[in-house]
Automatic annotation (TrEMBL):
Protein name: Alpha-ketoglutarate-dependent dioxygenase AlkB
UniProt-annotated binding residues for Fe cation: 122, 124, 178
Cofactor: Fe(2+)
Cofactor annotation remark: Binds 1 Fe(2+) ion per subunit.
Keywords: Dioxygenase, Iron, Metal-binding, Oxidoreductase
A GO MF label: broad specificity oxidative DNA demethylase activity
Superkingdom: Bacteria
Keyword Metal-binding: yes
Organism this protein belongs to: Actinospica acidithermotolerans
Length: 211
């Protein structure tokens, strides 16, 4: 389902077994070497979303290999099986196996939303590559707000993201504003997928950074 040029929603792309596998993996990554935590913002605040990163460590305006604003540890490698999963999503979204061949994501950002967490409207501009972002959602449903490239304000389109949904953001929408204004607590198949509460979102990206 194409929401906007380059933005493709694949509802229910992950089966329950794949979702369980991802939840187990996220639980392991959340233990460390850089524990799942709330990112500190340059303004002095903290994000309500909790995150853990693979491949590169993200903080606002900056990618590094180590958690230089936290415990200094190096983030784990992005596993090949996760990059493969991203390529399969891309091939399905664009209905073109070739679209995925050269796609080499080098970072995964895992976001955990408890019942009160939100993500304000923002652009993802730390990546120097225009390659698509692949997003995977597990757990409670949320409202995903997909805006425009000019301003953080209207016009936008609200889409519900549910457990198992995949989304690809490429082409003209790669640098569009977007956010998660609302979660529906208790709305997902959380017990089935091994998640006590809340929502997990994984995004795969290409940083375009060397080595
Ligand atoms: C559209 N995550 O991690 S995923 C983020 O559900 C982020 O956790 C949200 O926004 C979440 O930065 C939304 C969908 C998403 C991710 C990256 C995008 C949409 C995007 C980058 C460009 C355009
Ligand atoms: Fe984002």
């Amino acid at each position: 389902v194409e929401i906007a040029p380059g933005a493709v929603h694949l509802p229910g792309w992950l089966d329950v077994e794949q979702q369980r596998h991802l939840v187990r993996a996220c639980r392991e990554w959340a233990r460390g070497p850089v524990p799942m935590r709330r990112t500190r913002l340059p303004t002095g605040g903290v994000m309500s979303v909790q995150s853990v990163h693979l491949g590169w460590y993200w903080r606002p305006y900056h990618y590094s290999r180590t958690a230089d604003d936290h415990n200094g540890a190096r983030v784990p490698e992005l596993p090949d099986w996760l990059a493969d999963l991203g390529r399969r999503v891309l091939a399905d979204a664009y209905q073109d196996p070739d679209a995925a061949v050269g796609y080499r994501p080098d970072v995964a950002l895992v976001n955990y939303y408890d019942h009160a967490a939100k993500l304000g409207m923002h652009q993802d501009k730390e990546e120097r590559s225009p390659d698509p972002v692949v997003s995977l959602s597990i757990g409670d449903r949320c409202v995903f707000r997909f805006g425009n490239t000019e301003t953080r304000n209207r016009p936008w389109t609200d889409v519900e993201l549910a457990s198992g949904d995949a989304f690809v953001f490429g082409g003209p929408c790669r640098f569009a504003y977007h956010g998660v204004p609302k979660l529906y607590p208790g709305s997902g198949p959380n017990a089935d997928v091994g998640l006590a509460e809340g929502r997990l979102n994984l995004t795969l990206r290409v940083t375009g950074l060397p080595g």
